[in-house]
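Repro:
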Amino acid sequence: MIFDDIGSFPLPEGIDREWVEKNVDSKEYEEMVKRAFMMKIKAGVDLPNYPQFRDMNTMFLDLIKDEELQEDVYVIKKRHARIREVDALLGMEIDAMRACITGPFELYYQEFGTVIYDDLLERIAKSVGRFIQNLDAKKVGCVSLDEPSLGTNPDLQPSRDQIDMAYEKVSFKNDVQIHLHSPLFYTELLEVESIDVIGIETAKDEKAMEAVDAEELESYEKFIRIGIARSDIDGIIAEYNSIHNTNVWGDDEGILNAIDEIESKDVIRKRLKKAVEMFDERLRYIGPDCGLFSFPKQEHAVKLLENVNMARKVNE
């Protein structure tokens, strides 16, 4: 099993997304990305995603929609289809990283809504494919397509042909994950050859594991990524407050205690054990359910990652 993370990470104190957008090309931002990436490595993450400090949709759509960078409408020229954060990390002596890219359906949905026009979907999918093509497989061990609306938005119902169209441009030497917030759509992706690993969130709702059939995964030669640690920090803190009749909002040490109790290594280990029992060799990746941007501070996100690392080490 490989311990990875979905991507997003809290900003350093005193920095907001407005600053990031204005300074994304600066040396200061590059150093901020490198420091956060090293935090993930030190916490024990095997395959850390680049720290995704920017909005997952606009960081790609802004480039795809920029007429100066386009080959055609919504088709970015290949040389411009690069992820700033990945490029910032390439100069570091790292073994490997994970690179999340917002999926074609999510980008389409954010731009046009739930009514899918094939020509527009095809253009966006072509652009997504070019971001993947520009990744260095020697450094990037896994690409993940983030598709949170598939299976959670009942109005987003692509056809079989549209699913094939969306992912036919995806080609990468190493693993290609797809990150879903719900397992409801996973069966629609089993026949997509370009996808190797289906990722689902199960820590907040462990019954989600039961919606996935391990034998079905095996028959289609697919693997699974299981979220074994909750990433809903508001819920974690609220639960801790309720148990102890207290209020640790705004209390850094109290929030660390909340994470250590509600998402302790023992709690996480039980979920991991269940995932191993259910999926055995089909289980390839583990980590938090989703991104950690909503955590109040970077130290809180690191604490959760450390707990995951301790849980999986005990399980080995």
